[in-house]
Amino acid sequence: MRADPAPRSEERLRAVRSELAGGATVAEALARGMPGLLNVRSIVDAGSDIRSAVSGIGPVLQPLLDDAEVTDILVNSIRGVWVDRGKGLERVTELTGAFRDDTEVRDMAVRLAAASGQRLDDQSPLVDGTVGSGIRLHAVLPPLAAEGTMISLRVHRRVNFSVEDLADNGMIPRPVLPVLLALVERRANVMISGATGSGKTTLLAGLLSEVPRAERILIIEERQELRPYHPHVVHLQERKANVQGVGAIPMSELVRAALRMRPDRIVLGECRGAEVRDVLAALNTGHEGGWATIHANSAADVPARLTALGALAGLSESTMAAQAVAALDAVVHVERERGSRRVSQIAVLERTRERELAAVEALRWDGTALHRGPSWSKLARRLGMEDVGL
Length: 390
Ligand SMILES: Nc1ncnc2c1ncn2[C@@H]1O[C@H](COP(=O)(O)OP(=O)(O)OP(=O)(O)O)[C@@H](O)[C@H]1O
Ligand SMILES: [Mg+2]
Prior knowledge:
single chain; about 400 residues; alpha/beta; Rossmann fold; nine-stranded mixed beta sheet; 13 helices; elongated; binds adenosine-5'-triphosphate; binds magnesium ion
């Protein structure tokens, strides 16, 4: 005879009800009230599958999102999933064959797009948005994406690095740290340049955390990324056109609006279009201490990039050169090499004898030592660092 006969189904139901009445979740109540029917782990797993399916990510990718080291997830239709854990792209071999056909990948892309408040279908086969708090989504459907649905996720882990953290992990070389702090303290106008994912935004957030507490920082961004540790930060965010193609508020309009909001510091998350004209105009008319990031593979490429962006705003090459030289005190370049990121150069924008815009080196870090370049004396004067040995 069994000492502990299995409870009959009414008893089990009563047990489940009383667990629920006691405040248990459905999963907990089922697990406790109906032991043996389902094991607890599978209920918890089912719960997390449901949660991820609802948020659009889906159970296949959720483990990658849960991995704190993953910053990028790329799904190339059924051909494979790739991630970046800070050491370059790696294929996720466990996920080979995880999607049966492109329809599954497409469904996931559509769900993710919906979670970001946008639509993705044959009429609008390209989507760029934010999912949840800080997952940047980009998805393209075929036939635009020739190999099938492509999804790119950039995961913004909300790690805020202080400048001390960044100096400890090697991103800010120790001898460069006082120069960066002086740029903040002396209210210089600075552009941070670097390639995609080099750490421009991270460095900027760290530096903005050093802004004096009494100042008001106004950040203009396409989508909210910069979260400096500072008590007085406000954001203006771009609004894209709706499905009917109306209602867009461009970044340049936000920059002009920002000027009327009594900012002590104007920050443009990323210069990527015509708003560069408005930002440079603002920095040239008494708004000091402004910061922006710009995509460029080296500091020497910044003039060409600025000229190209200026052209979008109808600025001639020479007007852009004059505006940029007058507005910006320095360009801080971040480099990403084999997974490690570091500030490799600080330059000053000047005009050559041919009146062209050029980034002239002030300081260069070669990995072990700091070298002064031709524009160091100019920058040192601006920062009151003429007598400082570096
Ligand atoms: N010094 C660092 N140590 C560790 N992780 C870092 C460091 N710098 C940046 N990261 C991480 O790398 C990712 C990319 O950084 P970030 O967004 O700052 O780069 P970015 O140059 O602004 O990129 P984008 O070109 O997309 O604007 C982020 O997830 C960030 O947390
Ligand atoms: Mg960035």
